[in-house]
Amino acid sequence: GLGSLADSIENPEFYPYEDLPHFPISTVEGHAGRLVIGMLNGKCVVAMQGRFHYYEGYCYNEVTFPVRVMKLIGVNKLIVTNAAGAANTSFKPGDLMLITDHINFSGDNPLIGRNLKEFGPRFPDMSTAYDPELRSKALEVAKDLNIDIKQGVYMMFSGPTYETPAEVRMARILGGDAVGMSTAPEVIIANHSGRKVLGISCLTNMAAGILEHPLN
């Protein structure tokens, strides 16, 4: 994803996940595994350096626990980032894609079970899961900085295997532009509690079957 953004936070305070009650521990290589709280462009922000994934063996309640904690400490806007494979053949590795919507193909939903009504309703609306106003602002900033940014639908698979070529073809047929193994559960939980979300995918590779060589 774009985890290095946290390095730009001023006057940072670091909170390793292992020191935070009930936080899972990130097992993914390259994830620092800590919360960073500080100032960024005059705004108080909370950043996660490392997230938790379904494929690590965590249930969705564990994967999304930090998003609920952020709600309780006053975070009302969420920017989610990920590394993804490009299913849209007009995209290329290195592109940034603003997420317009997602397809949750993971086979699970973090809101299954007893509803926590102190956070939100039993049946939350997902028609604008990714806030159009935040996306419009992101497009304006990208234009000002001469960044050619794409827009598209993100499709989540459970992982940890990469998608098969047939699954990538299916993703395109269903309207998916990028594929990955995260993001949807956190966005569902954020929407459940009425927060605005901006999603950005960093397209690190073409998805399986588009190029001849295997993924690694």
Question: How would you describe what is shown here?
Answer:
This protein is an alpha/beta fold and 216 residues long. It has a domain of 130 residues: Nucleoside phosphorylase domain (Rossmann fold, 3-Layer(aba) Sandwich), CATH 3.40.50. The chain contains five helices and eight strands. The strands form two sheets. Strands 4-7-6-5-8 form a five-stranded mixed beta barrel. Strand 2 and strand 3 form a beta hairpin. The radius of gyration is 17 Å and the shape is globular. The mean pLDDT is 94.
Q: Which class best fits the helix and strand makeup?
A: alpha/beta
In terms of DSSP E residues, the strand content is 25-35%
Query: How would you spell out the order of helices and strands?
Result: EEEHHEEHEHEHE
Biggest sheet details: 5 strands, mixed, barrel
Q: Look up the CATH topology of the domain at 77-206.
A: Rossmann fold
Shape verdict: globular
Give the beta-strand count. 8
Q: Can you say what the CATH homologous superfamily of the domain at 77-206 is? A: Nucleoside phosphorylase domain
CATH class of the domain at 77-206: Alpha Beta
CATH architecture of the domain at 77-206: 3-Layer(aba) Sandwich
What is the first-to-last residue Cα distance?
Answer: 16 Å
Radius of gyration over all CA atoms, rounded: 17 Å
Protein name: purine-nucleoside phosphorylase
GO molecular function, one term: purine-nucleoside phosphorylase activity
Keywords: Glycosyltransferase, Transferase
Pathway: Purine metabolism; purine nucleoside salvage
